[in-house]
Amino acid sequence: ELIAEARDEYPVLAEVIARLDRQAARKYYRESAIGNLLADALRAHAQVEVGLMPAGAMRADLEAGEVTREEVMNVFPFTDKVSVLTLSGDVLRQVLEKSLSLEYGLSQFSGLTLTYDSRRAPGDRLIEVSVGGEALKNGREYSLVTGSFTATGGENYRMFEGLPLSISDVSVSEALIRRFKQLDVLILPELGRQTDLAVSSK
Hints:
Radius of gyration: 17 Å
Shape: globular
Structural class: alpha/beta
């Protein structure tokens, strides 16, 4: 009943913003196509090198066909703002190891590919990583976009604390909606950005 009232009060929620080519489902401990889609959209909006979408931030799947504003807001139902960090390759490596620990599920990334081994101890699982097609350089600076909760140390991303940070007035959900509108037809990204040697060797 409350949902129906909200829809009556805010008819814009029913606005069709794009069309999706196939179902996009979440996977908390694995790379997911919906995670790749959202991370890509956030990175494109911010025009940075790396996009990070935490597993726990994705609260719904997307069905194939018409995608409404309400459905995107159900996927990311938070008030986080788009936030851009500047970090060294060494800190980015820490970010990836933090994600690969699976403490809060596997974060989803755009702009990079990595290989890891989940059989190894947390903190020592990353095997190799490329950003923009080039091997990660520890001393180089990279730009990364995520939500303001994560950017300020949420979900235990403590390595972000004290780094150069720019928090936008635009919410993450609005950034996703804007990008989806630009694309109009959403082609779900293929998997293969995060390869677990423990799985591929079986």
